[in-house]
């Protein structure tokens, strides 16, 4: 490994540490606040809050492809070292996001209000509260659009420590909101006040991004401007990327609305709980990916393809291992964990939690592949094929629910579509970027599959042979961690990776021992 690659690896490790620090605190706070807010709002209001917020997120159909385009071009120009072009891209991105806010506002106040008041299953006495949440959520969404270029440039510059600090501030502010909602002695509509306070925190955090980036990065001090050449490239990229973005939103928020229409807000509450569990687990891999992905784009931009492809494969494998080790005890003992965490939970929650974790393990394999595809800029045919297949999630889910299938059938559909998309991504990257499909399947897909099986055998045997209770939960959890770590180290890692991990573990042990001496 040469000096530049060693420095990049060190930067990824350092940034991952910052993000993991934020994530560990955020996960604990999130799990606690999910329980408290479920108790404070009640199952029905919790479901209404989730489905209305999800409806607002549907309007990212309008903006998400351009947002992805902005992030890609900012990181690419940083990797290419073109400062003037970077300023032009940033100025154009500000103008784009301002225009998008206007479009979203019109769509939300017409189509959005019509859906809330005529299509969603909401009790009549909670319709006013649902409309209030919709308006506040729309405002939050628009503010997020305006701040997106600033958060994107922060990640592109790999200032993950600052990114982590802002995240921690938001985490603790949200904790304060939840405690206020739960314990405030005054009488008020908790769902409405909760949404307003959440929006207020978002405004403060987004202003913080703006102030920091304007002070530290020269490209952020330019005024919003329209550069035709930038717009032509970004809109071309975004136009084709819109297919995949639309498919992803329909798969998540569109299917959530289908569940509301067919089963009502209680099932939305069950899905909301499953999403909270999944977010806590996948944030481990997500923080690793946040630190890694800018390096994938930058190494491709500098034409260092060998290093780029090694990052892609390692990112897929280690992202999978992280989710696998955390998901295994949850998958085995889901009912007990939910009972311990929430005491009472809606019907279908157990099935949703299990299916959403399995889907996340599949999906994490594609994260670096998607990033590499975006880095190439050649996405027209890719999006027509992969995005077109992803779009099938929504109609296939509707067909299943229409014919009386259980709510969790939407995840079975997603798993089938996800496998097809993974294979399509590999085929396109082989032709467009030169990534070896057979090498990836052998060294990533087969590798993680064998590692997963070996990790699960002993914990599954213990689970099946111990009586239900806290002792089984603790035993399965500890054994899962040990078996997962040993399997990853000796089956999932190459000899070089194993040597690197063991040397770092030895160094950490010496530091701890010296500190206690």
Protein described:
By secondary structure, the chain is mainly α. It has one domain. The chain has 19 helices and no strands. Helix 1 packs parallel to helix 6, helix 5 runs parallel beside helix 7 and helix 13 crosses helix 16. The two termini are 35 Å apart. The relative contact order is 0.10.
Quick description:
By secondary structure, the chain is mainly alpha-helical. The protein contains 19 helices and no strands.
What's the helix and strand layout?
Elements: H1 3-41, H2 43-57, H3 60-80, H4 83-118, H5 127-156, H6 160-183, H7 190-216, H8 228-263, H9 265-301, H10 305-332, H11 334-342, H12 349-363, H13 367-376, H14 380-390, H15 393-402, H16 409-432, H17 437-465, H18 470-492, H19 495-516
Helix pairs in contact: 1-2, 1-6, 1-9, 2-5, 2-8, 2-9, 3-4, 3-5, 3-8, 3-9, 4-5, 5-7, 6-7, 8-9, 8-14, 8-15, 9-10, 9-12, 9-13, 10-12, 10-13, 10-17, 10-18, 12-16, 13-16, 14-16, 15-16, 17-18
Which structural class matches the secondary elements?
A: mainly alpha
Portion in beta strands: under 5%
Pattern of helices and strands? HHHHHHHHHHHHHHHHHHH
Shape: globular
Number of distinct helices:
19
- What is the count of structural domains? 1
Radius of gyration: 23 Å
Distance between the termini: 35 Å
Outline the biggest β-sheet: none
- The count of β-strands is 0
Unreliably modeled segments: none
The average pLDDT is 81
Portion in helices: over 70%
What brief labels describe this structure?
mainly alpha, globular, 517 residues, single chain
